[in-house]
Every structure is written in structure tokens, then in C-alpha cells.
Amino acid sequence: MASKISSAWGRTIDKVAQTSSFYMVVAASSCSNAEIFSTNNNQPAQVLMFKDRIVRDAEKYIASCPKECDCTVVVNDGKVLLPRSLAMALGGGDAKTTLASNQVQAQERLNAEKAQAEEVIRKQRLAQQAQALQREQQLLAEVEALRMQRKFEEEARVKEQLRVAQETKAREEERFAREAAEKDRVRLVELQKSQELAKADQDERRKDRELLLQLSSELTRLRVEAAAAAAAAAAIKATSAVSVAVPLPVSASTPEALPPEPIYANRKALVIGNDSYKVVAKLENAREDARLMAKSLTHVGYQVTLKLDLTEKEMKAALRGFKSQVVAGDEVAIFYAGHGVQLANANYLIPIDVAGQDEEQVRDEGIALQRLLDDMTDKKVKFTLAMIDACRDNPFKNNGRAIGGGLRGLAPTTAATGQMVVFSAGSGQQALDKLGPSDPDKNGLFTRIFAREMQKPSVTIDRVVRSVRTEVVKLARSVGHDQVPAIYDQVVGEFYFRR
The Caspase family p20 domain covers which part of the protein (predicted)? Predict the structure, then answer.
């Protein structure tokens, strides 16, 4: 049987079997047919697949044999399965001897298959170990990559933190620099203000010295005139001449008629007089009016701040300084003599350096009267008396200009509760500085009468103001002029210059 030629392979069955990894031999005792079905594929994963195919091919071969043929599988992967009839037909020997030989061969094949299986298992284990090693190396590579990634991320995070810290430090340094610059600027401004205040104080002292010199000179002149008048009177009396009574002009020399009041802590006054205007027409007696009013208010117990010929900057500084001195519950008097103008129903007091190119400039550089009143309201002052002697010709109507419509005087105003505002003349009227060319008084009509009337004891301020208005109207009409002081009164309660 082993020497028979395989029709599928073209070689003897024993030659095919020697080169096969798995084979089956089909033979029969009733005929001379014999065939081998085999594979030489040693791949473990494919051996089973080929075994199944070989078994099916053998079954098909057996099924295709004639019915009288007793074909069967006689060798299955090296294991001899010869039936007794076939063994006798093929070998013709003793059945026992043949069977023993077959058993030995079967054991040898079994051992070979076992060794082959062990080799397959060993190879599988080696392959698994190689795969495990490869997997371990892959995991190690992944771990190393992850470690490097985390290292890079940590370095990036540290760099970002360092960048943020540097930016924060830079911002802090910039903020500190700005704060230091601001402090330096504030110190410089304060230094400039202190220098300006010192200069203003020096100017004020100089002006006070000039005033004292003028008063001293005036006192000397009056003494000389009094001595001359006494001598003339004595001469007249001695010669029995007829004396003629000459009416004395209205004068403000009467404050000395009563002893001065003590200075009260809750009585404060700001007095401003502007004469020496640099661009618009100069005035003649605004400073004298301010000096007289300062003297009169001091005589009735006010702490007086006197300011003369103020520029815009000086005037605003004076208002700020006075506001800082005032406290709630004070009785305040404000007197202003100088140029004033009305713009759109608002009144502006004019510093000496205002050029007045247009209304916008006057609004920016002038001092709004309402600002003074609002400042006193903000400080919760108990009583405010504002005396404004600025009802003169519009200073800006010359040279083709007519700021404020060329109107004379000031516009009507409003007073808050606890305030009284008095203008030296009504709307559209001019306040008189003199009662004619022969009037020797250096003060305007409104101021000289007000300074005199406020010295009367036990007269409320509202009655004093109305007495001033009556007297001003009478004296102005005596020279053919209409001047009616305007009064805006919102005072609650009674207040006195002298009790």
C-alpha cells in the first residue's frame, strides 16, 4: 500500500507521508485502490483548518467508491487503523505480530505528535513572551513619552507662572511709579499753593501797610483841617461874623460813634474790592468801599477777610479759602465791589484780569454769584447776607462788543432759605459812586449808607437793609438819578448787626 502511487500527488504514498505534517490514508481489502490526503503546513493556527479539509476530502473519496468496495481510513495522522481483513490482505502475516508492530508504530507516532505539540506549545510560549516583551517595551515607551510630556507641561506651567509673576511685578512697579509721580505732583501743587498763599499774604500785608499809611496820612490831614476849622471858627466868633450852616455830606465815618463789638467766632465775612482792571475800564472807589465795609463789619463783631484787586486765580483761591473757614451754624456776610455782568439771567463777578473776548470766556473766567450762595448752602450756614455793589455800566459793551446784551447792572436772582441778597441797584439801573462833582466822599452811595446804618443797635438786619434802600433812593433822587437797591430775602428769624 505504501508503494502505491497517489493520483493526487503523483508520488508514492510513503513519499507523500514523509513530507506531510498531517495525513490520512484510505484503502480497501476488496480492491487495489489506495489514496493519501495530506498537508505539509506547520502553522499551529492553520493545522486544524487543514485537518478538517483532509477529513472531508477522505470522506468524499470513500463515498465515491463502488458499493462493493470496503474502502476505509487505514492510517490517520500516523496512527494505523487497519482492519484485520485488510491487514491480512496486505501483509499476509500473523495478525498478532502485525498488531504489535502497529502498536509500536502508533506509540512512536504518538510520541512524535506529543513532541511536536510540545514544540508548538514552546513556540507559542516564546511568541507570547516576545509579544509580552514587545508590549512591555511599548508600555515603557508610552510611560517615558507620558513622563516627558508631563515634564514639558510642568516646564511650560512654571514658565507661565514666571511670566505672570514678572508681568504682575511690572504692573506693581508701574503702579508704584504712578503713585510716586502723583504724590510728587501733589506735593508740587501744594508747594506752589503755599508759595502763592505766601505771596498773597505778603501782598496783603503790603496793601495793609499802604492802607495804614493812607489812614495815617488821612488822619493827619483831618487833624490839620480840624485845627484850621477850629481856628477859623474862633476867628469868626471873635469878629461876631454871621455863621452859615453848611450841610455835611453823607459820610461813613460814623462807625466810631459806638464802641466796637467783640469778635464772635460764628461771625465770618469775606470782603472783595476790585478797581485796577487790566483790560476793561478801571474803577475808582471799589477798593475804598471794600475797606470801609471791612472796617464796619469788624466793628460789629465779624472776623473779616479783606481781598483787593484779585485776578481770576486769586479770586477763586480766596473763595475756596473762605469756604474752608465756614462751618455749619455760622452767620456769614459777603461784600463785593467791582465790575459785574449778567449773562442769560445769571450774574458774574469779574476779576481784574478777565479780557471778556466773548460770553463763553466770561462764563469760564468770571465768578458766578450763585456759586458763592451755593457754597454757603453746602456748608449749612445759619444766615448769609450778600451785599453786591456791582451795578455799574456793562464793562464789555465797548469796542464793538456787547457781552450780556450790553445790559447795565445785574439780573434778578434767587436766595435759598436763610439767605438775603442785596444789590446796590435794581435791574437795569446804575449804582452811583458820587452825588455829584462836589461830593468829597471816597465811597459809593450804597456802601457809605450801608456802613452807617449797620451800626445802629437793636435793629434787625432786614430793617437795616430796607432803611438803606430808603436812604439810597432819597439821596439818588436828590441829584436826579433813579437807584433802588434790590432785595431778595429768604431769611427765617431775626438777625442783628448790633443788639
Answer: 265-395
